[in-house]
Amino acid sequence: MNKKIFKTKTKPKTKKTARLKKKDIEQLIIDFLNQNSERQYNYKQIAAAVGIKKVQERNQLVRIIDKLSSEDRLLETSRGRYRINTRGLMLEGRFERRSNGKNFFVPDDDINTVHIPERNSKHAMNGDRVRIQLLAKRKHADTEGVVVEILERVKSRFVGEMQVKKHFAFLVLDSKFLANDIFVPIEDLNGAKDGDKVVVEIAEWPEKANNPIGKVIDVLGRSGDNTTEMHAILAEYDLPYKYPENVEKEADLISSEISPEEIARREDYRGVTTITIDPDSAKDYDDALSVQKLPSGLWEVGVHIADVTHYVKRGGIIDEEAEKRATSIYLVDRTIPMLPEKLSNDLCSLRPNEDKLGFSVIFEMDDKAEVQNYRIVRTVIRSDARLTYEDAQKVIEANEGEFSEQILPLNSLAKQLREKRFANGAINFDRYEVKFNLDEKGKPLGVYFEESVEANHLIEEFMLLANRTVADKIGNVGKNQKAKAFVYRIHDIPDPDKLEVLNKFILRFGHKIKTEGGNRVVARSINKLLDSVQGRPEENLIETITIRSMSKAIYSTQNMGHYGLAFDYYTHFTSPIRRYPDMMVHRLLERYLAGGPSVNESELEGDCKHCSDMELVAANAERDSIKYKQVEFMSDKVGKVFDGVVSGVTEWGIYVEINENKCEGLVPIRELDDDFYELDEKNYRLIGRRTKHEYRLGQSVSIKVAKANLERKQLDFVLA
Question: Which CATH class for the 2-84 domain?
Answer without folding.
Answer: mainly alpha
